[in-house]
Design a protein that fits this description.
The protein has 98 residues and is mostly beta strands. Helix content is 8%, strand content 37%. The chain is built from one helix and twelve strands. A three-stranded antiparallel beta sheet has the order 8-5-12, with no helix packed on it. A hairpin with a 4-residue loop joins strand 1 and strand 2. It is elongated.
């Protein structure tokens, strides 16, 4: 270990640990309905019809959503759709495209 590495106090273990280890453990893995790992910028496809609250529309199965963004919640993703602003989808209803 290098002397200039940053250390963080881990309250769970009661020890001082390298910050790089703590960040690696905190990284959340987000998976789609099929178990594929999702990342920012991925394209997804809806696996079922979804009624969108407040918009009065239904997104049909097979609709492609481009350029997703991950959120703090591993079960939700931020999306942009042509007709709906501020769309948040649950990962159980999407499958990674390509």
């Amino acid at each position: 270990m290098s002397d200039d590495e940053e250390y963080v106090y881990d309250e769970a273990s009661g020890e001082w640990r390298p910050a790089s280890e703590v960040r690696a453990e905190a990284a959340v893995v987000v998976k789609d309905a099929a178990g594929n790992v999702l990342a920012d910028g991925d394209q997804v496809v809806l696996v079922k019809d979804l009624k969108v609250k407040g918009a009065g529309t239904t997104l049909k199965q097979g609709t492609v959503i481009r350029s997703i963004r991950l959120t703090d919640n591993p079960e939700e993703i931020d999306c942009r759709h042509d007709t709906i602003k501020g769309l948040v989808l649950r990962t159980e209803f999407v499958r990674k495209r390509g």
